Amino acid sequence: MSDPRPLLFFDSGVGGLSVLGPARALLPQAPFVYVADNGGYPYGTRSEAEIAARVPALLGRLAERYRPRLIVIACNTASTIALPVVRAALDLPIVGTVPAIKPAAAITRTGTIGVLGTDATVRQPYVDDLAARFAADCTVLRHGSAELVDLAEAALRGTPPAPERLRAVLAGLFDQPGGDRIDVIVNACTHFPLVAAEMGAVAPHPVRFVDGGDGIARRIAYLTQGQSWPADPGMGKAVFTAPQGDTHLIAPALARYGLDIVETL
Ligand code: DGL
User: Fold this and answer.
1) Is residue 82 one of the residues assigned to a domain?
2) Does 175 lie in the same domain as 92?
3) What is the number of the ligand 1 atom nearest to the C-alpha of 46?
């Protein structure tokens, strides 16, 4: 029996595409709905209370409307703040996206890791906890950038980020005391892997970037093993929470991720 229920991915914008990409590659039979809460964008400069109120309510509406088999919160800001509340409120598997500090600690040679996220994410106790549990023997330097989120949104709309802007963002990590020893950067915002190659090109020395995309894909495969999928999943559906004027600019990037139906909630 074929089961049409989709996997629903959720982010404030296009960042979650960096999580959707590896999941599509691993699960080609899966139908996808990708939701960008552009009506609430950006999340990273909002308060904890705003995120904790907005995200569970919106996901409740989305679960009713699209009847997914599983939801991926493809956003570090929403996950590090609202994951427990969402899990308590919804009766279906919820996969979160949290900073990939554990894999970073496994590969650093200098013992100094940079964590690049939104302002909201880098101040979360959740990040303190990950650093204490998985990187206790490392120096973990953090930097929050709202600008990098905007640069990634623009990049997906066809405007490449200016190298000097990226250099300035990275200086927020490398210019901290001991920052010259950073050899691994955790992209702790799902927008940032979308511009990781460009960041690597302007970094003051070679650095590796890590994120949670591959691990999340494996987690979804594990949670859905044994389930049936439609014979032909068709193209995925892109959903925005507010009307947006530049659909024509974002449509080519959505198409690259297998998303072609653009609708407003
Ligand atoms: N992509 C989101 C994250 O992973 C947040 C970006 C934003 O809206 O500030 O944190």
Assistant:
1) yes
2) no
3) 9
The string of pLDDT tens digits covering residues 34-50 is 999 999 999 999 999 99
- Tell me: the pLDDT tens digits for 108-154? 999 999 999 999 999 999 999 999 999 999 999 999 999 999 999 99
Residues 175 and 109 occupy one common structural domain:
yes
| Domain with 137 in it | 101-211
CATH number at residue 44: 3.40.50.1860
**Count: domains in the chain:** 2
Whether residue 106 is found in the same domain as residue 196: yes
94 HSE (CA, 13 A, CB side): 24
Rounded to two decimals, the pTM is 0.97
Token pair of 123 as six digits: 């101040």
Exposed / middle / buried, residue 251 (Cβ in 10 Å: 0-12, 13-18, 19+): middle
For residue range 210-238, list pLDDT tens digits in order.
999 999 999 999 999 999 999 899 999 99
Pocket test for ligand 1, best of 43, 50, 126 (most atoms within 8 A of CB): 43
| Mean pLDDT for all residues in the chain | 97
Query: pLDDT class for 173, splitting at 50, 70, 90?
Result: very high
Of ligand 1's atoms, which has the minimum distance to the CA of residue 75? 4
- Ligand 1 centroid to Cα of residue 99, in Å, is 12
Tell whether 67 is covered by a domain: yes
- By the 8 A CB rule, do 116 and 148 touch? yes
Q: Which of 144, 152, 151, 208 is nearest to 176 (CA)?
A: 144
Looking at residue 244, its pLDDT comes to 85
Which residues belong to the active site?
Answer: 75, 189
Does an H or E element contain 17, and which? helix 17-26
